[in-house]
Design brief:
Largest sheet: 5 strands, parallel
Pfam family, one: Response_reg
Number of helices: 10
GO molecular function, one term: DNA binding
Shape: globular
CATH architecture of the largest domain: 3-Layer(aba) Sandwich
InterPro entries: CheY-like_superfamily, NreC/VraR/RcsB-like_REC, Sig_transdc_resp-reg_C-effctor, Sig_transdc_resp-reg_receiver, Tscrpt_reg_LuxR_C, WalR-like, WH-like_DNA-bd_sf
Strand order of the largest sheet: 2-1-3-4-5
Number of strands: 5
Helix content: 40-55%
Order of helices and strands: EHEHEHEHEHHHHHH
CATH superfamily of the largest domain: Response regulator
Strand content: 5-15%
Protein name: Response regulator transcription factor
Keywords: DNA-binding, Phosphoprotein
Length: 203
């Protein structure tokens, strides 16, 4: 797994790289501190699996440069935007500009790594395409994680523990999943997701 991490703060970059490598074996991280440097690297890297992009960069900020980065990478490489902004519309703005996901830096390390690992799933593109066909409103990456764990038979308490979130947050995710998939209960959600190939059956 080759990951390009664009972040100008060295301590932040080193801390996340350490956590990412500890959680995900065989991860190679390429570092850049500016968007200009990142675009030069992208032009010379043949195989790139993911980009982590800080929104606050010196010179050209991440949000402004995002369309150019998306064009350089193509549609298949996930771009995960990291932000400390309190703008309630920032997630929408980043996705409109080409980001795959937007994660706030205030979340704890376990949740951050868990959400990043979601996009390391090689079956993600086909799952997202299936989700677009089935759900009136697409499930978020976090809702996809919750749904996959529910398919494994995990209770709300276990799901909350594995994802490093509260029970209340877990229940809210379940409620939104039921609403989006237009089913009455979690069993119905799991069955619909499996038959529609949004998720894979639990082994």
């Amino acid at each position: 797994m080759n990951v390009l991490f664009i972040e100008d703060h060295v301590l932040v970059r080193e801390s996340l790289i350490y956590a990412l490598k500890k959680a995900c074996e065989h991860t190679f991280v390429i570092e850049a501190s500016t968007m200009a440097e990142a675009l030069r690297l992208v032009s010379h890297i043949n195989l790139l699996d993911m980009v982590l992009l800080d929104i606050a960069l010196p010179g050209v900020d991440g949000l402004t440069a995002l369309p150019n980065l998306r064009q350089a990478l193509g549609a298949h490489v996930p771009i995960i935007m990291l932000t400390g902004s309190d703008d309630p519309n920032i997630a929408r703005k980043t996705r409109e500009s080409g980001a795959t996901e937007c994660i706030h830096k205030s979340c704890n390390r376990n949740e951050l790594i868990s959400r990043i690992k979601f996009f390391m799933n090689p079956g993600l593109p086909s799952a997202l395409q299936a989700m677009d066909r089935v759900a009136a409103e697409p499930l978020t990456p976090r809702e996809m994680e919750v749904l996959q764990l529910a398919a494994q038979g995990d209770s709300d308490k276990i799901i909350a523990f594995k994802l490093g979130i509260s029970m209340g947050t877990t229940k809210n995710h379940i409620s939104r999943i039921l609403l989006k998939l237009k089913v009455a209960n979690r069993t119905g959600a799991v069955l619909k997701a499996i038959t529609s190939k949004i998720i894979v059956p639990a082994a």
